[in-house]
Write a structure and sequence with these properties.
The protein is an alpha/beta fold. A seven-stranded mixed sheet has the order 9-8-7-6-10-11-12, sandwiched between helices. Strands 1-2-4-3-5 form a five-stranded mixed sheet. Helix 1 packs parallel to helix 3, helix 1 crosses helix 14 and helix 6 packs across helix 12. The chain is globular and about 60 Å long. Bound molecules: nicotinamide-adenine-dinucleotide. Nicotinamide-adenine-dinucleotide (NAD) binds next to helix 7 and strand 7.
Length: 438
């Protein structure tokens, strides 16, 4: 047993996030607007609505003074952008990074608005960040920075207003400090002000595997549409972290034959099917890496992406399927566990080939769905069993998949654009009914 106040774990990455895609760094907001534009055009969106939905409703900028360990005061810039709150309180992660910009926050907040609308959770979109290099901050400095950022935004955050979550370089411990600081100001414990909390502070069952489970659920929904049985399908999964390893295990449990997985150390292939629990155990014993795994043939990550499989799950990082390798990709279905794994050029090539791409904004929405469940449980003060969380996740992901699939057919477009059409239509319809307050 450790002491009463054990060293907080601030450096481990959170396994439960509301991460957003890496957008074009030159102009992230424009790169978000590009897809919004296509959807707006399909929907023949009124120009006034277009302008409203393209613009964030609030932008908060705060200067965060932190007393560093040296005794010197350093001031950091903190941002919170609320893109839209037509469907409900806004929701979105907080990231700590040296290159946080307002344009990036605006784009990512809008991306959260669309994601929440697609999955059917009653939230708008937000994003926050602090311009800092968390690796250069001590634990004490990180705690003071987090608490002051929260205190400065105490009137912005709130269970009915704006609910943050972990994103890049922020984790459960940081969310616990947000909860505590907000609660100190509110003079009561307010668990629902933040999601992605430690279980003991009101986190949800099932959250650890929520994103990977969501990937499995939409894959099963796609197989049903294509009249394919899981037992007839082979799968390759790129990335064996939180999302990839859970997706691989659950797809295997559904009867699919997972023939290849990979991580940063390369690919592992067995045409007769890999034993995923064995690989997970191996990775756990070897610093979360598959290097040296003996019961598979070694292949490169590049080879994995072009294997002759039915289902490809990119679950590592962005820009993996590009104009160079897309012509060689043989999978019939691509399920984007990662954010932005397919470049726009590759998207076009694959669409022409007839590959069904389940886009990131839908495929990896399991995390934000369980975030919503966490908020609901906090507000009910009643905590659900794992079984209940999983059943509800299944229902919401399937409904979202079916809605997007129908839009795709109705507008004869890709699932990616179909997803945006659903989102923009939903938010615009709610706005139309609410009207504009004079
Ligand atoms: P993670 O860090 O747990 O795992 C990433 C995995 O990818 C690791 O196995 C790593 O070795 C591997 N990898 C890294 N570079 C690689 C490369 N070049 N080739 C092959 N493998 C490589 O991360 P994660 O939480 O599983 O997230 C993976 C992706 O899913 C990211 O794009 C993330 O934004 C997205 N995502 C995650 C969540 C979540 O809840 N964790 C939710 C939505 C989206």
């Amino acid at each position: 047993m450790g002491g009463l106040y054990q060293k907080p774990d601030v450096l481990s990455s959170s396994i439960y996030k509301e991460p957003a895609p890496i957008l074009d760094r030159e102009n992230p907001f424009e790169s978000m607007i590009e897809r919004f534009n296509v959807a707006a055009e399909i929907l023949e969106l009124d120009p006034g609505f277009y302008e409203y939905l393209a613009t964030p409703v609030h932008i908060h900028i705060v200067s965060i003074p932190v007393v560093m360990d040296s005794g010197r005061i350093k001031v950091f810039e903190g941002i919170r952008v609320i893109h839209n709150e037509v469907l409900g309180p806004s929701k979105g992660g907080i990231r700590y990074a040296p290159d946080v910009t307002i344009d990036e926050m605006k784009a990512l907040a809008a991306w959260m608005t669309w994601k929440c609308a697609i999955i059917g959770v009653p939230f708008g979109g937000a994003k926050g960040g602090v311009k800092c290099d968390p690796r250069k901050l001590s634990i004490g400095e990180l705690e003071r920075l987090t608490r002051r950022y929260t205190a400065d935004l105490v009137d912005v955050f709130g269970p009915d207003k704006d609910i943050p979550a972990p994103d890049m370089n922020t984790n459960e411990q940081i969310m616990a400090w947000v909860l505590d600081t907000y609660s100190m100001h509110a003079r009561r414990t307010e668990s629902a002000v933040v999601t992605g909390k430690p279980l003991i502070l009101g986190g949800s069952q099932g959250r650890r595997e929520a994103t990977g489970r969501g990937v499995m659920i939409v894959t099963m929904a796609a197989l049903e549409r294509l009249h394919l049985r899981p037992s007839e399908c082979t799968v390759a999964v790129q990335g064996f972290g939180n999302v990839g390893s859970v997706a691989a295990r659950l797809l295997q449990e559904q009867g699919c034959k997972v023939v290849a997985v990979s991580d940063i150390t390369g690919g592992y292939y067995n045409p007769d099917g890999l034993h995923i629990p064995d690989l997970i155990e191996y990775a756990e014993e070897h610093h979360r890496l598959l290097e040296g795994y003996p019961r598979a043939e070694r292949i490169t990550n590049e080879e994995l992406l072009t294997l002759d499989v039915d289902i490809l799950v990119p679950a590592a990082k962005e820009n993996q399927i590009t104009a160079e390798n897309a012509p060689d990709v043989k999978a019939r279905i691509i399920v984007e566990g990662a954010n932005g794994p397919t470049t726009p050029e590759a998207d076009e090539i694959l669409n022409k080939k007839g590959t069904l791409i389940i886009p990131d904004i839908l495929a990896n929405a399991g995390g934000v769905t369980v975030s919503y469940f966490e908020w609901v449980q906090n507000r009910q003060g009643f905590y659900w069993t794992l079984d209940r969380v999983n059943r509800r996740l299944d229902r919401m992901m399937r409904t979202a998949f079916n809605n997007v699939y129908s839009a795709t057919q109705k507008y004869n477009t890709s699932m990616r654009i179909g997803a945006y059409v659903i989102a923009v239509d939903k938010v615009a319809s709610a706005l139309r009914i609410r009207g504009i307050y004079a």
